[in-house]
Model the fold of this input.
Amino acid sequence: MPTPVSAARQCLTEEAARVLDDAVAVARRRSHAQTTSLHAISALLALPSALRDACARARSGAYSPRLQFRALELSVGVSLDRLPSSSRALEEPPVSNSLMAAIKRSQANQRRHPESCHLHHQIIQGQQQTTSLLKVELKHLILSILDDPIVSRVLGEAGFRSCDIKIAIIQPPVTRFSRTRFPPIFLCNLTDSDPVQRSFSLEVSGDENSRRIAQVLLKKTGKNPLLVGTCAIDALRSFTECINKGKGSSLPAELAGLSVSSAENDISEFVNGGGSEDKLGLKFKELGSAAEQCSGPGIVVNFGDLKALIEESVSGVAVSFVVSQLTRLLELHGEKLWLMGAAGTNETYSKLLGRFPSIEKDWDLHPLPITSVPFNDGFCSKSSFSLMGSFVPFGGFFSTTSDFRIPLSRTNQSFTRCKLCTEKYEQEAALIQKGGSTSSVADQYSESLPSWLRMAELDAEKLVDVAKTTDDPEALNAKILRLQKKWNDICWQIHQVQPKLDISHARFQVPSAEDFLLSANRKEGSSKDSSVIKSQHANPSSSMPTDFQKVFPFEQDIQIPVASAAENRNFQSELLDKVSKSQQIEMKSPWFARYPTPNLSLPPDCASSSPVTSVTTDLGLGTLYASASQEPDSSKISGDKECLQNFSGSVSAEVDAVSESTSHQVAPSSSCSGPNMGGQSDIRDFKSLRRFLAEKVCWQDEAICSISKAISCCRAGNGRHRGSSLRGDIWLTFLGPDKVGKKRIASALAELMFGTKESLISVDLGFQDRVYQSNMIFGHNEFGCSGTNFRGKTVIDYIAGELRKKPHSVVFLQNVDKADNLAQRSLSQAIRTGKFADSYGREISINNTVIVMASMITKGDRTFLSSKEPKQFPEEIILKARRYQMQILMECIAGDSDRSNGMNVRVTPRKGFLNPKSVNKRRLTETRDSMVQGEIFEMPKRAHKLSRSYLDLNLPVDDLEDIDYGDCDSDSISENSEAWLEELFDQVDENVDFKSFNFDALAGKIVKDISLKCQRSLGTKVVLEIDYEAMVQMLAAAWLSDRNRAVEEWVEQVLCRSLAEARQKYHLTAQSALKLVTCEGTFVEEQAPGACLPARINLN
Amino acid sequence: MYLMGNTLLEALNVRVEGSGQKFLVLAHGFGTDQSVWKGILPSFTPYYRVILYDLVCAGSVNPDYFDFRRYTTLDSYVDDLINILDALKVDRCAYVGHSFSAMIGILASIRRPELFTKLILIGASPRFLNDKDYHGGFERGEIEKVLYAMEANYNAWVQGFAPLAVGADVPDAVREFSRTLFNMRPDITLFVSRSIFNSDLRGVLGLVKVSCCIFQTTRDVSVPTSVATYLRDHLGGRNTVETLDTEGHLPHLSAPGLLATKLRRALSR
Done:
């Protein structure tokens, strides 16, 4: 019923009534039947009012104020247009219920929170409360109008948030948080001349302290409280007084009648030399007999402040006597006697402990921290009680950001989810039975689960293990994955409420049941949540038993089908033996083979009422498949005994193996199980594994050793376990330098374990940072696993896609430290759960995958190893090698007769770090020395040493740069990834450290080789200078090449031939020197076989 | 009325966010609620399961749960914290507590030392009032005036207190803190402030055996820098003081990035 305007007006102050009149006018103009909150808003906006002002202050800065106000007026106008107009024009359209409610709300609020409005002081002084009707101020009216959902919607359309506006209204515009203009009412700014000087005794209830003391007294061991804390002595005193005055009502019933006797004075007198041992002994005896005779629970002996016992002035003997007496007292009358004391600080107590180490045990002490002073007068100040009277929270006025509020309906939500998920599960299970493929609803669905729900998958993991032995891995995987999802969800549900029959869990159970009731209530339309909650919680003890009983019947319902299912299994399997094995069921078997156990464990968990139906149906399905898997187990087990012996894992793993072999027979095309089975013996054989890897990469002995160990260990069944079942995925990290070595080992692993090199999925996670130019050696061939392959996809989508294509593979992730957040998350999840999720949350099992994560970072120090010692050819430089065409230049070196004697092959230092002249000088002096020795054949080596020695002078500069680069790089990543990496590295099966490749030694070898060959073709007189870049290129080629002798062959076939040509062409003299340089800008057109080097060398 | 189990989890808006192995509790201080952590939460969710909850005195909790007879000392808040952790079946966790919650964390670690791997105390103080050998930053008379001001005009008090507490010139932080302060029911605010100012943890610091990291900003109206040193010297475990290069009592609002970085470092130590 709408309220007449005049009645509404009575509730308002003049100012507010004027606004109401305006609103009524708006409604009349539009010939609406009622005046609503929207009309009020429209009226408020028309004039320069508090609302308009607040909007101006609350608006977001993104738009111009004029535009935003225009938008607001527009949206208000549009909403008003939508209201139905009445047929007959009313003089005063009555106030609608919603607006009237707003007025009432503001009225109530104003009454409750007088301090938040300016009426407050008037109330104190003028006793205005007597007026029965409080007039609503405009400000409060606006605030409650803003609470109207229609209004918030309209404001929202114009880009305003009503909560912002509310704050703006409450905060007067002058302050706007500027400290200068509005002196804060805090501390010093308060005038001391405040007329009302109320004394605030900082009273806080000692009740709480006493309660805690009583708790300690009730304990079996450590029952004697020692109060520790600055306020401990006061607390002790107040407890004593409280008990002795008979105010022990706060104590639990067991302690009723307790009394406290103080021995404090006697003790302190004695230790200060004031009494005799006899006197004190007598006192203690009295206490003992008092305890015995006492009818109640006993007496508490208060020995007072421990400080008395540890002061300097007291004699040690006296203290020992006191301690021993008290100990005896406790021994004799322990049942009915407590000790109690206090210590001002922990130090006091530790000092006593230092003197009497066993005192804590002897006295059975429980140090109880006391942190507040006990109260002395009233319980709470009256003023705070007066405030307490108001119930509606002030906070209700300001809507909090909704995402931080967890509604009480959380369990309720999950219940609906469960129904949803079971429905879908049933649908899909049916579809799979039919053999049809299903869509990916499951995945989308799982996406919608909040993240904390997904965590529960961990628990569920043990149920699922997929992707072994598949004909059509992709389709089946997808199917099974979806089913997995379902099961996870269901399982989550079951794990979510875990009532066991013991009482502690019952406690958890009951609230959820309560909430379920609550949600039911809500559906019935009662919107007053708080009252419902209140009634629910007011008497939890009474509602508990009934709720529990309600739940209990369900449990019994469930146990029966499960039990029968278990019994039936054998019977069913026999039956099924005769049924022709449908391939599909058989392929499911490895998965469902793991089901029986979890299924059987379901009943105690299923007490929550809603998933009951789903569980029973699922159980039916589960046992069906379970029996199917049981069947090949029994029938094939004799035939495949040899095969079985290879597996020493859990029973389920054996079932896997069996079904693997059966499916292999049924479908010989099954691509992966073949090599897997065949390779079994190899893999187990650590030595052969090691030999194979060492053939591929000869320079990483230690790394290979630990890799082989780790893999054979994992394969032998000592790998990671998920629940009881063995997981097939192996996680390795390759840390440190030697990119090529790591890659090659990874591909060798792929070849060895899965048959072909093609089963290597290689991804560089740092590809965004690295720009590979087309002509770089390492951007070119197999190392070019750069962005090109998965442009437009995220890295993890790419990986997931590849994994789907070839689930049996080695995933090689380079620069794992550069992984972005998404990849990080996916990897952490994968290592935990054995499933790799792509960016859409679709998961793929990695049960047959070896995941190798490579990083230049080493585990120990997190720095780039390569920059540790100065090297002539650091790995960074080799990695930047380009595929330039090579060229031989001839230079005349004038006037240097010394050199004419020797032939020399040497490498020029890096460009830009030495000027040629100084090189020359150094080189000359050095060579001269060596000439004197006359050991021509040592020359190349010497030359190598020589060049090294130049570089030693200069490399630090170079190295410094590298270090800088490395550091800043690692710094930038460390912020984000360090912790993640550390965690990841802790979880892998093995962290393998790689040594850096010794390029310097290789360079020496190559130079020597070239020198030898040059001598053969050119004679000893000619000097060959190899440009640094050219050398780098050769080193890179040697590093990359599969064969050991690739570069040597190239030298023989290409370089020597070119040198011979050059000799013919240039008529070399003693003064001439040949130079092998790279032609910057021109790239290799024709590549030499087997190496990344030009097939011929230009002569100019 | 005792809050237990799921009721407690719901009443105090307990949330567990993120996907890590380890648990991390972020506990907000007086005058704020769990939303105060939103600036630094994303930096921890990838590595930790972050437990967020509201103190019973926070504005986002139904004020009915605030039992004026029960929450007279910090121990009841400690009960809540420990009950939450037990209900979530947490057996080990790192704890980050701001101000009031730092005190709670200290007491909780005394009661259940095995539950905590590390305490990180932001803007913590064992005692706000000055004493003869101790500078807590407040005189009793001052406190009484503050409490009186709070009672007389909550609105004005908030407007004065918020910028002062935030310290740094970050309007957003001031607005956010004002919002959460406003959300608290004034009588509860008053009551809680009383129990905070009334608490004195100095005597029990030595009972803490968990290692603590004390975060202190360069200027904090509520906590003088000497308090951080006091804490370091008196807490019983291995302790470090980390100075944040920012001002104010609420670094998680005024400088979330900086705090997140430092927290990460401190947690990984």
The radius of gyration of chain B is 17 Å. Chain B has a mean pLDDT of 89. DSSP finds ten helices and seven strands in chain B.
